[in-house]
Each structure stands twice: as structure tokens, then as C-alpha cells.
Amino acid sequence: MTDPxxxxxxxxxxxxxxxxxxDVLFVYGTLRFRRILAALLxxxxxxxxxxxxxxxxxxxxxxxxxxxxxxxxxxxxGLLLSGLNAREWRVLDDFEDDEYELRRFPLAAGxxxxxxxxxxxxxxxxxxxxxxxxxxxxxxxxxxxxxxAYLWISPGxxxxxxxxxxxxxxxxxxxxxxxxxxxxxx
Length: 186
Description:
By secondary structure, this protein is of the alpha+beta class. Helix content is 18%, strand content 28%.
């Protein structure tokens, strides 16, 4: 695990283009839960519901968390996190292991959604799933109307089924969050 207190220059190059505080991050798996964000960051950043067309939140072999993979005809739901500082970007980047690639995505008009769909106002089945700070998200990720997202890049690990936030919340969230809260890696 990377030491978040190290200068940004010592961190993986995938953060080089990120502009802390103004860029937004699309999260679609465990990071959409308030408890997970609080355990990692010590706070819950501002968030807004978002979707991305042509991608799905794939279940992964032997892992409790998902990966975002290209899938025509599918839509992945998640949140746009805003107001992250440089330390928080490093913490989240460290949390997302090397089997993820950080990439930019286009936002729909108004910055409320990723891809070509409108933002979903529907809360997840678990009340813990929406990490809303009540602030509209409209930052940029390299240009107007873009957000960052971590894509899964190990196709051999991808299962045919979709990872479901409410299933994770009911079966694994407490154990997963407790491990983070006491400082245990994933």
C-alpha cells in the first residue's frame, strides 16, 4: 500500500493529470457507501447520483468488489464524488489496486451524469449506499464535462453477472467496512 503522506510526485503516474479539488470521480462499487468513504478518507465527500452508458459494474472472481467493464446495452450506476483534495485522491488511488486503470469519461449536460444518460435520483436499496453531501457536482476532469473512473483491466477475473450494491450491503458491507475501519487492507 502506498503511503498517502508521500509527495504526489512519488505516487503512481495515473494521478498526474488529476486536478485535486476541481476534478470529479465516478464511483460504482464499494466507494459508493458512506461508511467505506469515511473509513478511508475520514469524511464523506459531496456526491451526486450518476450513470455511465455502455459499461457495467461486473462481479469479479473471488473479490467482494466490482470492476467497471465495457458492455454495450448496459448502464452502470454510481456516484460522482467532488471536492477531493490531493491526499484523498492518493488514498483512493491506493485503494484501487493495479488491476484498475484511471480514465476520463464524458459527462452528460449539467455534469450530473456520466455517459449519455440522465442522472438517476433513485437511492440504493441500502440507505448507506448514497454518499450524498447535498452538493451538486459539476467539476471537470481534464476538460468541461468530464469525470474520472477506475476501469477494471483484468478480463480473466470478470464474471458474467453484475455486482449489486444492495446485495453487497446485505451480505458483506459490515465485515468489509470493519476491516477498513481498523486499518486492514481490503
